[in-house]
Write a structure and sequence with these properties.
With 460 residues, the chain is of the alpha/beta class. It is built from 13 helices and 17 strands. The strands form four sheets. Strands 4, 5, 6, 7, 8, 9 and 10 form a seven-stranded mixed beta sheet that branches. A five-stranded parallel beta sheet has the order 12-11-13-16-17, with helices on both faces. A hairpin with a 5-residue loop joins strand 9 and strand 10. The radius of gyration is 29 Å and the shape is elongated.
């Protein structure tokens, strides 16, 4: 009976040892190929591929084995990365489609509850129930945004940013978020290059990484946010790094870190969407994220974003509350989801506008052709059956050349807007929207002097 040498088996990973032993014994007299792990003296794990064949004696009997062992660790790692990428892409496509439909439902629920609340007297006991509906809708909308971020199907509105200024501006928010038991320090790089990204999304990335670091340091520790210029060989990059001194992660956790709904936190303490959101935002922004972590040695999340040689965008003034603006213009609402279309019509009519409706491309074109007066604005979903909202808007402009366009969506497909970015020159409103959000955006567009681009699809 063949017995494998103990000295060789001692190096085989404990989880693979029984399989390797059985293969060597059962297939001693025939060629075989087997892949397994070994553990080196320093504790590192490597993948080996061994191809063996029997050596026959003069009687034709196998009396020993000759073989070649090859280190295939890099190949196995690439295969695992490819499988992981395929899995993430499949989950992302599913999540993006579901989030799109869910956003339409949330827009209808939240919007109609807002209109209902306006109609109820201040002392009406039903106001509390409607307010609870609104709060639940807001929480659901937040989860939907995270799913869209992971799936890279959200609409980005990038600007040229100074990450040093962005991090500094978040200081007052981050300090109470992490608690007094954690020491927070920022290390901004001098002469940092600018990047092009959606500022709100990058802020969300930083908050999610900071919260993740805080949860890894329940007894306290150090949290460092650092920026730097870098070059990985594919052009200048800007590095944004978040480092903690917390509990760290093992290899298994690191391999699943960006999967949606994967979490190591106790039940009810997290959704498992924080880091998958980070992953989606950075990928959609054209960047990369690298994680370095070991158990009890903390974690470092390093983000690389392409640098741009452009002036930083000036801060945008945020309109304050107050009376919701009204108007009297004519607006065409183009939306295939009836509940959202009805909501938009009710909101706009309450604010004084004349509203035309269309649920699909043919109806929109027919409505525009038949309408004798001007149509000042079309509010259209970006994603329409059979045609994109952008393409349809171009056809409508041929009938009403002075018409403005407002795109509305909670979801975006790669084929509609190049590289998942939306031209900053186009007006856009995120779903689910509020009455005030829609009314202010409409008024802003109608009061802005018209510009005449060659095509709605021009630019990025």
């Amino acid at each position: 009976m063949y017995e494998a040498p103990d000295s060789w088996l001692d190096a085989v990973h404990p989880e693979d040892r029984a399989r390797v032993t059985e293969t060597c014994r059962s297939r001693f007299a025939e060629p075989y190929l087997i892949e397994y792990r070994i553990v080196r003296a320093d504790g590192t794990v490597r993948w080996m591929s061994t191809r063996s064949s029997p050596v026959l004696n003069e009687r034709g009997e196998a009396h020993r084995v000759a073989g070649i062992a090859e280190d295939v660790t890099e190949r196995k790692q690439l295969e695992e990365q490819f499988r992981q990428a395929q899995k993430m892409e499949a989950v992302g496509q599913l999540a993006g489609g579901l989030a799109h439909d869910f956003n339409n439902l949330l827009a209808a629920i939240g919007g109609h509850s807002e209109l209902l609340l306006e109609d109820l007297d201040a002392a009406d006991p039903r106001r509390g129930s409607v307010e609870e509906i609104q709060q639940a809708t807001a929480r659901a909308a937040g989860l939907t945004r995270q799913v869209l971020a992971f799936s890279r199907r959200q609409m980005l509105q990038p600007e040229v940013l100074d990450l040093n200024a962005l991090v500094a501006g978040m200081g007052k928010m981050l300090r109470p978020l992490i608690g007094e038991h954690i020491q927070l320090s920022t290390v901004p790089a001098p002469d940092l290059c600018a990047v092009r990204a959606d500022p709100g999304q990058i802020e969300q990335v930083i908050v999610n990484l900071v919260v993740n670091a805080r949860d890894a340091m329940p007894q306290g520790g150090r949290l460092t946010i650092q920026t730097a210029n870098a070059d990985l060989g594919n052009g200048p990059q800007v590095l944004l790094q978040v480092t903690d001194t917390g509990s760290g992660m093992d290899a298994t956790t690191r391999s699943r870190l960006f999967e949606p709904f994967f979490t190591t936190k106790p039940y009810g303490k997290g959704t498992g969407l924080g880091l998958s959101t980070v992953y989606g935002i950075i990928k959609q922004s054209g960047g990369e994220i690298v994680v370095s972590s070991e158990l009890e040695r903390g974690s470092t999340f390093t983000i690389y974003l392409p640098a741009v040689d452009e002036p930083v965008a000036p801060p945008v003034a945020v309109p304050e509350g107050g009376e919701i603006p009204r108007g009297s213009e004519t607006i065409l609402v183009l939306e295939d989801e009836e509940s959202v279309r009805v909501l938009a019509r009710k909101i706009l009519e309450r604010n004084g506008y004349t509203v035309l409706e269309a649920g699909h491309a043919e109806e929109a074109l027919l409505t525009c052709a038949r309408h004798a007066g001007p149509i000042h604005l079309v509010v259209t979903d970006v994603v329409m059956p059979g045609v994109s909202g952008r393409e349809l808007a171009e056809r409508l402009l041929a009938l009403h050349s002075d018409m403005r366009v407002l795109f509305v969506s909670g979801y975006i497909k790669d084929a509609i807007v190049e590289r998942d970015r939306f031209d900053p020159g186009r007006a856009f409103l995120q779903k689910p929207f509020t009455r005030e959000g829609l009314a202010r955006k409409v008024r802003e567009i109608l009061q802005t002097p018209a510009r005449k681009p060659a095509r709605l699809g021009a630019g990025r």
